[in-house]
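Running log. JK asked me to keep both predictions on one page so they can be read side by side. First protein, sequence followed by its tokens:
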Amino acid sequence: MSLKAIFISLLLLFTYAISMACDCVMMAPVTAYVPKSDYILVVKARDIQSTGDPEIDNYYPGVNAQIEVVGVIKGKSAPGDLLEFAPHSVSNCSLKFKKDHTYLVFAYKDGDNFAVYDCSWSGDITDKRVRKDIKELYRYMKRHK
């Protein structure tokens, strides 16, 4: 195999790997997503559930979960509510829940279940930025009642 063929093969492989990655650049402030979101919740993952597809469960573990509402920033829900999160489609940008972790989620109702908006400010509260965003969202909602 020629050096040119090896180079082209590596270039194609590298390009494919890049195209599979999630690249959500969050340019707007977190409060810009309030009007676009049906639900903005602080939740705790109580149980990670199967999607029914072993390949999806293996590649995207945690996309289906039973969660408990801890705090409501926007939407008709209350602390203690148990909600099923099961997106109608999954991607590299899908939020993957981990049992007993707490999250900020920008969500919508999808049939009987809830789903997290891809490329939203959703994230695990172990991230300092997410904790800061939660405080900012509560302040914003107080000012814009």
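And the second, directly underneath as requested:
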Amino acid sequence: MTDATPLPLDEVLDMLLDEFETPSGEAIAAFSKQYPHYRADFLRFAAAWAEEEALLPSPPLSQESEERLDARAQSALQNALFARSQKNAGRTGEATKRNKSAGRADLAHLARSAGRSLHDVARETRIPLSFMSQLNAKHFIPDTIPGHIAGRLARSLKVGVDQIRAAWTGPPIMKRAMSYMAKDKPESGPQRDFVAAVRQSNLSDEDKDALLTEN
């Protein structure tokens, strides 16, 4: 099963960060093999990342720069507050906290724990990369995702179905790559109906049926 249209750059960059955490040389080389048409974009993104991380003295900020930094700070604060609330809610002992943390892990984290990449898992489960990326970012309403999708992922990653369902439960995740470089305050859109998204996609009818029916 393959997508009829290429993955957008922002989704590819997010998958790069999911798998490698930073746009390292290894990450750029690996993703350039799979997405050669984005190689120049990967290099620009890595350069922008390195520039932001350099912590060099900078001239007085313009209003636009201040707004960009404020947007990033607000995004980081929202994520930190959500993480803290989840952590506090699950603090019932060290062992229980570890179990709950595992249950909250996103699909990329579960894949890394299994020594896999999202690309590997997408191929094995016959889930298009565009939908795998959106599942990882919690972009779908959990109750609309068919049970057999959770089953495929659980078998591939050798975890329980409950861990898979927990991985896509919670508020949608902002696209990290684009929010990192955004000029305006990044915002995540509302979660979508999975079945409706499949039916409205550019996938072939055969691939849509393969996603929506258990086989």
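Observation for JK regarding the second prediction: Residues 121 and 156 are 7 Å apart (CA to CA).
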